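Session log. Operator J.P. requested a structure for one protein chain; no other inputs attached. Running the standard single-chain path with C-alpha cell output.
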Amino acid sequence: MPADAAFDPALHLTVAQRWFEDFRVGERYILPSRTMTGAYFAAFQALSGDNHPIHYDEPYCRALGYDGLLAHGLQVLCFVAAGAGAFPHETSRSLVAFVEQSSRFLAPVVEGDTLYPALEIVDLKPQRTTGLVVMRATIHNQKRELALEGEQKYLVRKRPSST
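Structure written below.
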C-alpha cells in the first residue's frame, strides 16, 4: 500500500507545544489522585527490592503504631511524577531533561490513604538557549495533610528562531 502523503504524525500531539517562554510562575498541574493499595506496595517491592517489614508486614506495622503498611518514601514520591500530567506532553519537542528532584516526607502514608499530587511553577530561570522550569511538588492525603513537599527542575528549550 502506498504511503499517504497527507498523513502527518506531528498532528497527533494531545496538547499544543510549549517552549520555555510560554510558561508562567503560578501555573499548576493537578495530577491524578490514587489510593495506596496492596498492589502498589507489591509492585514497589518488586521494583526496588526493598524488603523491610515496615513496608510489607502488617502486624509489624501495627505493633509500631501505624494503621497499616507504611509506604516507602520513594514509593510516595513516584506519584508526583510530571509524566502523570500534561507537562511532558506540552514539552514534547522542548523538554531537554529532568535535572533535579528534592523532597521532604512530612507525614506517614499507609495502605488505604488517598494521595493528591500537584506541581506548581514557582520560578523560571532563563538561560541563553534554554531555561529552568522550577516546580514545587506536593502530595496531600485524604485528611488534607501535606505528606510530601519538594522541588523539581526541568531544562526546557526556548522557542527556536524563525530565521
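Operator note: The beta strands are 28-30, 34-35, 95-105, 114-126, 130-141, 146-157.
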